[in-house]
């Protein structure tokens, strides 16, 4: 067995940065069932704090992020109560991201490979496929939402195309002709950025996040100028709670913040692996989460609040807000910027993840690029517009899959920090030898699976059973806590029997 933290011969490790094959031979002792050049430990980790900061900017700055932040201000809380809830929630996310980032950053491996230490070298396909399926569903939905925003703006300037927006006369599989054109345009643009590799993705998110900030500040300034500062009130939902009754609402808001980031938080290792140092990752997380999210939320709520005096109604969709501006150039610039922002979040949250996850299932057959394109093609066949337009289907599909995220996180954290004491034998993540530290029983750590299933089932029940709807907003915490407890008990039994 290899020594702790002993990496393979550096000459055998591919210099992977762009995702392109390097032609290196399979390192000694590694198995083709577990290794390809995309899943290999990185030889050079080049991302600094700014790159991680830009990653979070791309993840936050989207149409969905805008609407989400505005909705928290509309809970009926006062402005300072909402800000406290936001700060507490995003600080929790910051701490959780630092924890999940560490094994991948220290060893230079993506999320599914890091999972091998906990679930076994073959059992890691369970958490990988779960995260990959969630990403595929959200990838399709985000692409559809971004394309819908683009179509709205196109029709504003080219009303002669309106007949082709009628799905009943010009449509296929539930989507209009112009809807298909917008969807496939964004699908191709995202695929183009992804296909060029991680270096291109890094450059894209380095640009996308700051670009949206510029437009957001300009939009906020314009709306304040139109409304007049004295006419803007930030208690969008009105004050509904007094005294101690406000505490449960604030706790709910905190939980919603954590749940909103639970997907990219779980597979954050796919990006932290590129960090120059763990310190750089933590600095990037600090500026990208508490600082960035607070600034984005303030700009969002001011812009949203200004829509009431300017347009006579509360508008939480930034694309609709931009669409009502009288200046065509501003409308085009704003719409394109928000489209770029949504492409950014879709790539970092829902494209890179399944690329690694599906590649992990069959490394010899599926490369990183092939895994990503597999997810992209699958996102078309699930017809996300039908999924999104059917609340019952999207509820059962995404909430059931999402209920596994919390338990997975709890199990991974307990195993790395408490069971393995932050020690991972890097070489053994890539071997099917029964002497390997992570072979377990037939390559699967059934204790991790045994902890995952009941924790996820309970989280699903909390989400699906109407009488327990008060617990639905806390399903991530419930699942993470139960997964951590169940795995701790089972791991302790394993240590006693060893």
UniProtKB/TrEMBL annotation:
Gene3D superfamilies: Hydantoin permease
Location relative to the cell: Membrane
One of the record's GO cellular component terms: plasma membrane
Membrane topology type: Multi-pass membrane protein
Transmembrane segments: 66-97, 136-158, 178-195, 207-225, 245-266, 286-311, 331-353, 365-388, 400-419, 448-468, 474-491
GO molecular function: nucleobase transmembrane transporter activity
Region annotated Disordered, chain positions: 1-20
Transmembrane helix as UniProt keyword: yes
Family from the record: Belongs to the purine-cytosine permease (2.A.39) family.
Protein name listed in UniProt: Nucleobase:cation symporter-1, NCS1 family
Species the sequence originates in: Paraburkholderia diazotrophica
């Amino acid at each position: 067995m290899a020594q702790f933290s002993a990496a393979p011969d550096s000459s055998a490790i591919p210099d992977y940065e762009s995702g392109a094959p390097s032609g290196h031979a399979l390192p000694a002792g590694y198995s083709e069932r577990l290794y390809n050049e995309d899943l290999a430990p990185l030889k050079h980790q080049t991302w600094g704090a700014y790159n991680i900061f830009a990653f979070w900017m791309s993840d936050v700055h989207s149409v969905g992020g805008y609407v989400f932040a505005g909705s928290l201000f509309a809970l009926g809380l006062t402005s300072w109560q909402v800000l406290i809830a936001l700060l507490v929630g995003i600080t929790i996310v910051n701490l959780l991201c630092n924890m999940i980032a560490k094994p991948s950053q220290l060893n230079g491996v993506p999320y599914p490979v890091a999972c091998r230490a906990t679930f076994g070298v073959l059992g890691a396909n369970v958490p990988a496929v779960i995260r990959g399926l969630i990403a595929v569903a959200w990838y399709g939905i985000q692409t559809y939402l971004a394309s819908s925003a683009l179509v709205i703006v196109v029709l504003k300037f080219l009303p002669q195309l309106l007949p082709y927006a009628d799905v009943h006369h010009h449509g296929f599989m539930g989507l209009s002709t112009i809807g298909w054109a917008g969807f496939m345009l964004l699908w191709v643009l995202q695929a183009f950025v992804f296909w060029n590799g991680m270096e291109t993705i890094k450059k894209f998110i380095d640009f996308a996040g700051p670009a949206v900030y510029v437009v957001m500040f300009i939009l906020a300034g314009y709306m304040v100028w139109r409304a007049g500062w004295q006419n803007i009130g930030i208690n969008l939902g009105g004050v509904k709670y007094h005294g101690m009754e406000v505490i449960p609402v604030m706790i709910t808001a905190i939980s919603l913040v954590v749940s909103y980031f639970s997907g990219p938080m779980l597979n954050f290792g796919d990006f932290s692996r590129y960090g120059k140092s763990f310190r750089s990752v933590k600095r990037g997380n600090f500026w990208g989460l508490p600082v960035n999210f607070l600034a984005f939320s303030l700009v969002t709520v001011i812009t949203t609040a200004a829509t009431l005096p300017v347009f006579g109604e509360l508008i939480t969709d930034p694309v609709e807000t931009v669409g009502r501006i009288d200046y065509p150039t501003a409308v085009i610039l704003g719409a394109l910027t928000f489209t770029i922002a949504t492409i950014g979040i879709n790539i970092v949250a829902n494209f890179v993840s399944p690329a690694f996850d599906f590649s992990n299932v069959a490394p010899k057959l599926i490369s990183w690029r092939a895994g990503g394109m597999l997810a992209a093609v699958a996102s078309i066949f699930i017809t996300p517009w039908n999924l999104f337009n059917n609340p019952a289907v999207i509820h059962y599909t995404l909430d059931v899959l999402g209920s596994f995220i919390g338990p997975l996180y709890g199990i991974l954290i307990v195993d790395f920090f408490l069971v393995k004491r932050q020690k991972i034998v890097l070489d053994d993540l890539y071997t099917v030898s029964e002497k390997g530290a992570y072979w377990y029983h037939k390559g699967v750590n059934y204790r991790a699976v045994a902890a995952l299933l009941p924790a996820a089932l309970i989280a699903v029940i909390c989400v699906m059973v109407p009488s327990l709807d008060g617990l639905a907003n806390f399903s991530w915490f419930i699942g993470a806590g139960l997964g951590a407890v169940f795995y701790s008990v089972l791991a302790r039994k394993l240590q006693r029997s060893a």
